[in-house]
Design goal:
Elements: H1 17-29, H2 32-40, H3 49-56, H4 60-72, E1 76-81, E2 84-89, H5 92-105, H6 118-122, E3 124-126, E4 129-131, H7 133-144, H8 157-165, E5 180-183, E6 190-193, H9 194-206, E7 210-212, E8 219-221, H10 223-233
Antiparallel strand pairs: 1-2, 3-4, 5-6, 7-8
Helix pairs in contact: 2-3, 3-4
Amino acid sequence: MGSSQRHPLNDEAPVPRLEQAMSGVAAAIADPSRVAILCALMDGRAWTATELSTVADIAPSTASGHLSRLMQHGLIVCLSQGRHRYYRLAGHEIAGLLENLMGVSMSPRRVPEPGTPVHLRQARTCYDHLAGELAVKMYAFMLAQQWLTPEGDALTVEGRQHFAALGVPLALKPRRKVCCPCLDWSERRYHLGGEAGAALLTRFVEQGWFVRTPGYREILVTPAGRTALHRYFGIDTVYPD
């Protein structure tokens, strides 16, 4: 009497879920245009679909389909900033996977260059807090020194102590989040938003370390500001006032 059960190695047997997932990821990567998109995102920044279509040399409509496929398999994530949507790698483990693949079979690909004017890339306001390359460096320092939680959504006890030493006032019962990572549209990395970000900018202006340009978003760094940035944030390279 024959058995109705299939042999576990039979070609028609169900494919284990892990193998299906691995196959899906491999298929998502196995396209030159999607590989070009992933390689462009290896610099850690977030880019728009239009920018990624340029670096992959494909039409924006085609890029949209590729981005959906990459998101479906957890390789990239989409970030919304106002009316704009940006895409970045889903995490360090994805970057590690791509780096290993590059080491085996690929040379580095070109990445898109931001078109933001230089004077705005350096330092500017983002509503009520600091943005630009300088703000991104400050945020990275605060994360590294554990002033912020790993998600960047709250100050640690040590962070509050450092803000107090800087003379930055923080409300006991704020009407909004104390901290939030805000995606910088020129650097495509995060800077500090929320109440803490606004209070930090206000304090730097009050101290004469930063100077607002009336009617514009540009922020100028004074010589005293350069000293303060080095002292409190370990930033040596700043821009002329």
